[in-house]
Here is the input.
Amino acid sequence: CGTAADADAVGPPDGRLTMGFSQVGSESGWRTANTKSIQESAAAAGVELLFSDAQQSRDRQIEAIRSFIAQRVDVIAFSPVVETGWDPVLLEARQAGIPVILTDRAIQTSDSSLYQSFLGSDFIEEGNKAGTWLSDLYNTAEEPVSIVEIRGTEDSAPAIERKLGFGAAIAQNPNLKIVASASGDFTRAGGKAVMRDFLASTPDIDVLYAHNDDMGLGAIEAIEEAGEVPGEDIKIITVDAVREGMEALIDGKINYIVECNPLLGPQLMELARKIVAGERVLQRVVTEETVFERSGALAALPGRRY
Ligand code: GYE
Here is the structure.
């Protein structure tokens, strides 16, 4: 058991690390797998986890982080719902001497020393992979190809960067045009509602690019209700590769999925342990990911954990 003086020493005084984790919400299959990974890895690593669900609200995340500071946790980790607005609360954490790790989503800040490390995917690269596949698919097209885009949560890093990466890649092929784009907030219901609007307002849609599987799955329902065949009348590309997305890919309703790995728990626990022990860590840790067409999905699905 530690004394007050031990609080500033390297490592938790009782040897057991306490982590406050503020999760975005439970908006998607990806998020469910991510939460499970973090909870299971904390248990396996003997980390005491204070877990808080922000239901997609930045204010609730800030409140959660303040409460972790008040409880004097050893380390704070969070997945920021949007990119901006974090500096004040991160300064409070610094003043309390509590290190912060970003997981999954990045922030915009003028002071990147406000966090120790950022562990997550390269979303620009994901958007790029989606756009490159599409450019190649239509490389002999002579007619314009109409693309609709369903974006993730407004102002979130994955929505901003998946759009950017995709846009840069399709610019290689002058026939490819985004004719409509709206946010479906990364949820299935959001994806369905947006797709229904697109189908009513936009003639002759050739391609849907959805920023995650859940929105793509919601859009598939809207497409089928409109009497069209997903994957054939409208080609569909999504991001994540959660089980239901992979099943839709195998059924031919989705044509291509760019993988985004939610299993960040083990790496997060390792980073936390090192940071609290005063070891140096990389400021950016990028997760490894692949892409799937139907054959790859068939081969990967049996061994998939989510
Ligand atoms: O792609 C989406 C989730 O931030 C990478 O958030 C994550 C994204 C993921 O809701 O399904």
Notes: Residues 27-28, 30-31, 104-105, 158, 186, 212, 214, 239-240, 260 surround beta-D-fucofuranose (CB under 6 Å). The longest strand covers residues 176-183.
